[in-house]
Amino acid sequence: MEKSLFGFIWRYSARHQIYILLITVLTYPVVYFLLELPKLIVNDAVQGDGFPRIVFGFDFDQIPYLVLLCCIFLGLVVVSNGLKFYLNVYKGRLGESMLRRLRFELFQRVLRFRLPHFRKVSSGEIIPMITSEVEDVGGFIGEAFALPAYQGGMLLVQLGFIFMQDPLLGLAAVAAYPVQGYVIPMLQKKVIRLSRQRVKNIRVIADKVGESINGVAEIHANDAAAWHSADISDRLYENFKIRYEIFNRKFLIKFVNNFMNQLTPFFFYLIGGYLVIEGDLSMGALLAVIAAYKDLAGPWKELLSYYQMTADVGVKYQTVVENFDPIDIRETEQLTSDDAVVLDGDLTFENVSFSGGAAGQELLDVSLTVPAGTMSAVVGPDGSGRTELMQLAAGLVAPSSGKVKIGAHELDRLTDSTLGREIAYVGGAVHVWTGTIRDNLYYGLRHRPLTEPEREGEALKEYKRRVNEAKQTKNPLYDLEAEWEDLELAGVSDLSGLDYKALSLLEAVGLDNDIYRLGLQSRFDPSMNDEFAGEILRVRKTLAERIENEPALGGLVERWNLGTFNASASLAENLFFAVPSDPEITMDEVPELPEVKAFLADTGFDKELQNIGIKIAETMLELFSNVSGDSGLLGAYSFITQDELPEFDRIVRIAKSGQQRPGLTDADRTRLTALAFKLVPARHRLGVMTDDLRDDVIAARKKFLDTVVKSSESFVAFDPNVYLPPLTIEDNLLFGRARVDRRDARRRIDDVIRSIVEETGLRQAIIYAGGDYHVGVAGSKLSASQRRRIALVRGLLKNSKFTIIDDIATGMTEEDRALRASLKDVLSGKTYLYGTSNAEIASEFDHTVVLDQGRISEKG
Amino acid sequence: MSLETEVEALRKVPLFRGIHETKLRLLAFISDRTEYPSGERLCTQGEEGDCAFIILAGNADVLVDTPDGEKRVAQVSENSIVGEIAILCDVPRTATLVAASKMDVLTVSKDDFLKLLKEFPDISLEVMRTLALRLERTTRDLAEARQGAAGG
Predict the structure, then answer these.
(1) What is the average pLDDT across A37-61?
(2) Partners of residue B33 in chain A, C-beta under 8 Å
(3) How many CB pairs under 8 A join A and B?
(4) Where is the Cyclic nucleotide-binding domain (chain B) (predicted)?
């Protein structure tokens, strides 16, 4: 990678830089004429005489001449600004694409780092380097050559003018330059050093903030917040100090420069005045020189700030780039090559040594043969070099001496395109990517884009542009929207085959039930898959029939029925007989929806609901006002939290007093309505649900369906023949509520649903729906065991001949045993290396290797 | 059915006789109101007990395991509390309860009842008094039974 900023700029944008320079030079005459023309207009057209003037062979009288000159002036204004606009856009674009090239290069280098290198660098440091630190480089690139050329040219022209008037004055004009040229870089050097310090300090801050976020539980668990605060605060002070120093120097440079610039006129007046008095120089020439000197200040200032910026950006570039050039960085080829070698044969270690840089991370002279198609256990406690051996076998790290081979191929020589496909590796510390479960399962098959999507019209044009830009900036041309799943590798012919295979593997690792449950709780968009929605509706019907025919079941559920009140559902659901289409809308927001507001006002329910709200609030206040907040009673049973009690106390007092002023605000009314909406009559037996109210609610829901639901998209009605997207799949199946006044109703109904789902073959489809479950940031919404199992399925789906599993399911529990047994089943006939610290397990495998302090102590 | 009727029923339970009405309302509110059709089990002997039942309406048979299968030893009816031993000390259910008719029951979970006791010490006192009375009566019964056995 280019060590210096200018090396980088010149290497990748020389052509563009020259072009910018040419256009810049082109602007010289335009600008010159633009400045000359007003003089001509005033002196010649307005004040001149002896018309007509002859221009290009035509005669012009005074007025037409004036018009002509003014039109030329207007034309030049347009041309000059147009050129400037064009140039600015061109420079900006060049800067952005160079920045893209730089950033991508940096990211690719991160991917090329060898694994042990990541012990030395942290993401908290790398991220700001690639994102914010190089940002300024982009703005600078467009100006890198054009600015000094342009402003330097200006400076030379003006200086030339002065020298032509009088060489002595010329010398006076440049007298201060050598001093400036010496002093300013001296000061700047210090600024550069400080800038480096600042960048590094900021990196440390970023890293510490990142670490605090990752370890936030530890911070609280150890009451270490004060320590971390002090640490960060200290760093911030350091930053302040450096910044302050930089300001001081920067403004000192400005000061020196300004001082020098204004010192020069001193010489002019002194030397020039002397020359005029002596009669060696005319008065007019002196004035012209002084005017020219004033014009020098502009370019000089620009050049100076350019110089400062060059120094600043150059330092930033260097401080970034030096971190991306470790000696042992892998070849780009190893990452990008598409050549895949088929690996076959025994896995052999020939006198392999490896050092991870710390004790307990090394292997010493290990020789070993794992015969093809066998299952071997590598036994060794943590720190015995087991993990290193497994990673060496997967080609993830390279030996410091010796060879790791599969068949005749040395792993270190192979590219990712071979290693990542032919070998499946699942280590103890698995990573689950942010995304859906399915994304994670098929991750191991996404090596290259396979079938590109068909594009036409606008989309095709846009795609071509994207490819073109990528080519120019040496970015990869891979198409993100293509199909990436390598079905052939997985040994299936189409996507549904892949789903089926994934499902069978999920069953093998015992994750199917978890995903089934997630699937039941998930929502899906019926427009994506009509058939599935139809299936769900059929099962809903079957379930309804069973509930009807079995009185024991019937007593556990209250299904949605337009003509009856559902005491196990909230008042809002009863009143609307519909749910908001957006499942994110909470009950507190429902009264604010314009449709709901209008409907409540229309039917007079607004007053009624507010009164119910007041009654509920009153009862809650009466029941809980003497209960202390930390007893936990309030949180679990009331729909009002401890913090809200005083607020509702105020609302109830105002409502009871009946005063018009200050009266209840709209927000208060909304709160009361929301409170009433949340009432589930069978659970909250507050006596507010009278028979009359029930009848009113049932009558009103018909009106709501006719007016709101029919005309607006924001609500979906409970219709037995329609799939309801805002509800979970489970709620769609049940189409009602488990009764809250029956013991274990929910669980018993769940059992019934499960058995019907299994009878009707819907289970697979629901597991499929569960595949769309979003796992949260880095799988945070999954348990550690679920994450490991997902990583296992990911590895197994690749169907590799070599599978290396380290430190997973190593216990003696029933569950771990079962998982090991099914892994053996799935991997029978393949080369399978299993790492564990538990020696008891070894007997389950064909061969065993025991590691102790980096050496093989036993083979069997 | 509202809190008021439940409070009325609670008041008739000897254990809660001396407790102030607002606290009974709170107790009623935090309890689950459940319905049992005839024949359904409220709890089974030997399992862990995590709640007490206050019968608002209907009857339940108390069954005990014997070598010959389950045997009915008693019946509990309206306004009685059963299973309260389980929520005061960690012992498995000593008997099985089966609804003999359609029942209306208030279920108080152990955690909530204990929280309530902590929150309102006068309830604890009342519970203690009732239990002490019961203990006194049991002791007397035992003494009488022993005397009877000795005399007979």
Answers:
(1) 83
(2) 682-683, 685, 741
(3) 60
(4) 15-134
